[in-house]
Every structure is written in C-alpha cells, then in structure tokens.
C-alpha cells in the first residue's frame, strides 16, 4: 500500500508492505527525512486519514526482495504467548434453538450453528457464541446503514444488506459500510463542488462582461487616434487562444506533456500518465485520473494520446467524452483502437445501457492488451448508480488523483501562458494573479486572459496596477448580518453531554467556561494552538491537562500533531477515564489548514455524537472570521452556539 499526501506544497509518501493482509514493513518520507519501521507505520496511518491523501494498492510486488532490501523497515512482532484454549461450557440445546428461531425471524443465516446441533455440544456452543457475536456486530452495522441516505448507491446498499444477513461469512462488513459512507460523502462533496463550479463559471462570465464594458468605456479617452475595437474583438481577446483539435483522434493539439506544468500537487498523476504513454498496455491498465474541475486531468488524458502517436504514427488513438456519448455503435467505433481515452466518467451515473456497452468495450480492449485511460471528477466508487462490475474493472488498475496547485506551481503555469503568447510579464503581476485563484487552473487562465486582453486593447503595459484595476472585485463583499445568539454567554449554564461552539476572536471566554465546567473538581482536557505556558498564565486551570496543538517537535510542553484521528483517540481515551468534566478544542482553523474543512467537519460530528452519549461537556473556541461563512453555518448546525460578549 502506498500513500501520497501533499499539503502546503510539502509532499509526504508512505509505503506499507503487507503479506496476507498483515503489515510486514513500513517506510515514510517527507522531503529528505525518512522514517522506517513502526514510527513510519504510525505516520503513514496518520496521512491516510487526510481527505487529500491518495491511497494505492499494488498486488504485483516482490515481497521477499523488498523485505530483504529494507530490513531496517521490518515491523517488530510481539512474541506470541501460547495459552491453552478455554473450552466454553456447553449451552443447553433448547436455549440455542430458541435464539436461532429469533435470528431466523430477523432473516439471519443460522446454518453455521444448525449444522452443529446434532454433533459435539462443545462444538455447537462454540459455533453459537461465534454467531452471537457476529449478529451483534451485524445489527450495529445495520443501524449505521439504515441511517445513510443511499440514493444513487442502492445496488451497493442492497448487496451490503444481503451480506449483513450472513455475518459469519462477512466479518468485515463494518469496513464495507464505512466505505459506502465515504463514497456517499464524497459524492455529496462533488455535487456541491459541481454547483459551486457552475456559479463560478457564471461569475467568470460576469467578470468578462465588466472588463468588456471597461474597455469600451475607456477606448475613446485612452487612444483616440486608434480604431475602437468591436464587442466581438474584445470578447475573443478575453476568451484567449482557441485550442485546435485533430479530427481523427479528437485530441487537442496544445495538450501535450511538454505543455503540462508539473508540481507537487500533480507529480504522481503526471508520472503515471507518462509511464502509460511510454509503454501502453504494460504499466497501469486501466489508468483513472481524478480531480476537481480544471486541475489538469483532461490535459493529461490528451497528452497520453499525443505521446503514443509520437512513438508510433500508425497507433489508433481515440478520445471520447462520456457526456452525451451514445451506446449505439460504440463498439464499432472503438474496434481496433490501441488507446482509448474516456473523459467525464462521472457522466455515466444512472446510464445503465451505456455502462453495459462501455464494460464490454473495456473488456475487449483490456483482453487484447490495449491501453485505456479515463478521467473523472471523483473516484469510480463515489459515482452514484455506477455498475459494481464497472467500478471493479476500473479500480483493478490505478486511480491517480490531482490536487489543486500550490502557489509556486500556479505562478509557473502563468509564466508558461505568458511564454506561449510571447509576452514579457512582471513576476509581481504573475504572483498577484496566482494569489487570487487557488483551486482552478481554468479560472487562473481566465484571470490572466482578462489582464492580457485589457492591456492589448487599451495599449497599456501589463503592470501590477493594471492587473489590480482589471481583477479587483466589482463590489465589496456584503457585511455579515448580525444574528441573535443561540445561547446567551452571560447566563449560559453548560450541561454534560452537550457540545458548544464559542464564537470569539480569542479563546478567553471559552477558558472561563472551561474553568467553570471543571470547577467542581472534575478533570478537564484542553487541546489548544496557544503555548500551554501562556495558557497557564491567562487562565486558572489546575485540573486541566493541556496539549499544545502543533507540529513542533522537541518542546518541553506536551504536544499533539494536527492529525484528526490522533486527536479523536486522545479525546475518547480521556472520556473513557473521566466520565464527567470538560474537553475544549481551540484551533479548528489550524486543523482545516492541515487537513480540509470536510475532514474537520466529519471529525467534529464524530466528537459531538460521542459526547452526546455521556456526561462530558465539549467546547470549541472559534474566531468566526477564520472560516468561510458557509463553513461557519455548518459548524453552528452541529453545536449549541455561544457568542462571547
């Protein structure tokens, strides 16, 4: 198993070697620093919980050679303690039969016990106890599944419900349900992102209109001697150069590996695509490229086709988009293809007939050793109403993800755009544009086009002032409307089993609430971005354990890294030892910067649910201005809100 995580331009890579499902060795590397053994295993585990991490499974691995080469990465195995198995006392047959009848009524498969009833009573008892434990687990999993909105994933949910009824033969059903939950969450995030992209596209068009009006308004005053550009000329300039397409292959001429800017966010996907292009049908087949909109997956798709054609001019390469694709005639169209490139895989959702036809096409091509590369805005398993057989076929190869480019890569992309158009642009201008657009290369190019178009049409040099004039927000963001506080800070009585979001610029009020919550002698836990030394100076919290939320190592203070699963473990361990008292978390914005808001929201929900089943009070101190308004609303829906005076 291999993990790749890129955060703030820093890439970490981890490897776990598994034999028969058991970890045997582990390595982890960040920049030049490398860990091996159990320390590495812990860091790989932490990376894997980040939503931004890419996780791959590779089956064709020479384990013996690798273990021999990385002997210092082998995980120490605890010595086995041999104990004589304790044979349970035989349970009365009537009691077993009574319980079997109850399970049968609920639809559970009880054959594993029924087949033993006429044999050795001890064997029957062991089988009964095993089924008893399996049914308990299955019923808990059933409750989890019942709480999920499986719209679009009905077939997977139905398959899981069938497996739940045979819990003995499906002991890992809880992991499968969690996988479905992740797919549903991913689908919801992608749909929300799609809606956001539609809104952003409308915004981009509006910005183009405003620049157009700006040009037309100033054309007479700036260059009265020059002929005025028409609306059509301005519009064409704002759109930028129109890409050209090869009719035989549908490949866009400009989308090559040479024109693709490689950074930490896309290095692995670029490497996988290049490996496939150099040895089609040999490396990863199929290869699935995934990312949010406009991050380069379609560019890489075309680049693979161009590289294969450059190596072998008679190679038949075909690019198709699943959006608007018809099943009729598809097999004839793709017959004899050496490399099939399929874009917009998510468009297959709910199109059963087309899915069947594509499955047949893929089977035919893969069986002949032909290369297939696909692109999607989400992993195949997160596409609603996608045939399980197609998901399995796609994930049998390699799924490679592209992340939003970091600042350095965005500047490099803009520099490449300027070079292609033979323009000399001040680095300060490029940096300014790169800071404005963070997670969409298309928008980045659109902003660049607006600046270039305005400069060209107005006959003015591209300067930082011009870029600011063209790209500044047309109207300031409306001020946030004050809302009535959900709970009055002055009179709030905290209750055990409740979670509170304390909105304040500094965690001062939350400290006083924490002190109040542990005032009766209860213990407390504080996880904070503030150095514990300063916390002790600010607030009297003698019975509170303080953990410094930081990546800093070697401090005299007790620290905890911003790994969400590690923090959950620490809090749940505390709650298991202290059924009352209070837990406070300060530093949500820091966790978001190290993980993602979606991951942090999921983390908060888990803690809120855990707290609700006990008597511990849970507090989060948050500066409202440190998160987006929509994100703040989502957090407010999960907790009782206290607004500090």
Which outline best applies? globular
Going across the biggest sheet, name each strand in turn: 14-13-12-15-16-11-17
Distance between the termini: 51 Å
Annotated CATH homologous superfamily of the domain at 499-643 = P-loop containing nucleotide triphosphate hydrolases
Number of helices: 23
| Biggest sheet features | 7 strands, parallel
The fraction of residues assigned to DSSP E strands is 5-15%
CATH architecture of the domain at 499-643: 3-Layer(aba) Sandwich
Global structural class: alpha/beta
Q: Oligomerization state of this entry? A: single chain
Kindly report the average pLDDT value: 84
CATH class of the domain at 499-643: Alpha Beta
Q: Radius of gyration, rounded?
A: 29 Å
Work out the number of β strands: 17
Q: Which runs of at least 5 residues are low in confidence (pLDDT < 50)?
A: 78-85, 474-486
CATH topology-level name of the domain at 499-643 = Rossmann fold
Helical fraction equals 40-55%
């Amino acid at each position: 198993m291999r993990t790749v995580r890129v955060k703030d331009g820093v890439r970490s890579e981890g490897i776990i070697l598994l034999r028969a499902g058991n970890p045997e060795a582990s390595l982890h590397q960040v920049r030049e620093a490398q860990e091996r053994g159990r320390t590495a295993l812990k860091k790989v585990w932490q990376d894997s919980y980040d939503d931004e991490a890419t996780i791959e499974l590779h089956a064709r691995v020479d384990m013996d050679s690798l273990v021999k080469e990385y002997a210092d990465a082998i995980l120490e195995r605890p010595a086995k303690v041999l104990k004589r198995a304790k044979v349970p006392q035989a349970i009365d047959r009537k009691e077993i039969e009574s319980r079997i009848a109850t399970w049968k009524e609920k639809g559970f498969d009880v054959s594993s016990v029924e087949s033993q009833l006429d044999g050795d009573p001890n064997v029957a008892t062991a089988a009964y106890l095993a089924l008893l434990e399996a049914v308990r687990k299955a019923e808990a999993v059933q409750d989890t599944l019942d709480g999920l909105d499986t719209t679009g994933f009905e077939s997977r949910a139905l398959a899981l419900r069938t497996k739940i009824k045979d819990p003995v033969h499906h002991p890992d059903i809880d992991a499968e349900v969690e996988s479905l939950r992740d797919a549903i969450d991913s689908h919801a995030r992608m749909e929300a992102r799609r809606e956001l992209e539609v809104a952003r596209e409308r915004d981009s068009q509006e910005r183009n209109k405003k620049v157009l009006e700006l040009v037309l308004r100033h054309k007479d005053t700036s260059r009265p001697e020059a002929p005025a550009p028409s609306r059509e000329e301005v519009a064409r300039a704002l759109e930028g150069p129109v890409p050209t397409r090869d009719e035989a292959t549908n490949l866009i001429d400009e989308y090559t590996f040479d024109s693709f800017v490689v950074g930490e966010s896309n290095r692995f996907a670029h490497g996988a695509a290049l490996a496939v292009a150099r040895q089609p049908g040999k490396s990863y087949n199929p290869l699935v490229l995934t990312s949010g909109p406009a991050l380069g997956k379609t560019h890489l798709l075309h680049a693979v086709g161009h590289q294969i054609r450059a190596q072998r001019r008679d190679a038949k390469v075909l690019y198709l988009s699943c959006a608007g694709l018809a099943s009729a005639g598809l097999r004839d169209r793709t017959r004899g293809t050496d490399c099939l490139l399929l874009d917009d895989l998510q468009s297959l959702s709910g199109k059963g007939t087309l899915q069947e036809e594509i499955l047949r096409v893929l089977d035919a091509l893969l069986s002949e050793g032909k290369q297939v590369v696909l692109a999607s805005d989400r992993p195949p398993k997160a596409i609603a109403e996608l045939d399980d057989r197609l998901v399995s076929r796609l994930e049998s190869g390699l799924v490679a993800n592209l992340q939003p480019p970091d600042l350095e890569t965005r500047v490099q992309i803009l520099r490449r755009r300027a070079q292609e158009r033979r323009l000399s642009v001040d680095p300060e201008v490029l940096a300014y544009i790169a800071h404005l657009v963070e997670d969409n290369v298309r928008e980045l190019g659109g902003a660049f086009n607006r600046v270039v178009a305005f400069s060209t049409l107005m006959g003015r040099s591209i300067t930082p002032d011009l870029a600011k004039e063209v790209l500044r927000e047309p109207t300031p963001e409306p001020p946030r409307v004050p809302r009535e506080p959900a709970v009055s800070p002055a009179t709030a009585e905290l209750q055990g089993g409740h979670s509170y979001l304390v909105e304040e610029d500094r965690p001062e009020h939350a400290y006083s609430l924490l002190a109040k919550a542990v005032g009766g002698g209860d213990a407390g836990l504080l996880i904070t971005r503030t150095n514990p030394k300063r916390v002790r100076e600010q607030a009297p919290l003698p019975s509170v354990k303080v953990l410094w939320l930081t990546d800093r190592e070697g401090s005299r203070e007790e620290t905890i890294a911003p790994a969400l699963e590690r923090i959950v473990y620490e809090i749940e361990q505390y709650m298991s030892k202290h059924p009352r008292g209070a837990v406070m978390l300060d530093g949500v914005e820091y966790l978001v910067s190290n993980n993602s808001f979606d991951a942090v929201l999921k983390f908060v929900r888990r803690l809120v649910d855990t707290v609700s089943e006990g008597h511990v009070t849970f507090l989060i101190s948050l500066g409202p201005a440190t998160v987006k308004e929509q994100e703040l609303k989502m957090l407010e829906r999960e907790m009782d809100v206290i607004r500090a005076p």
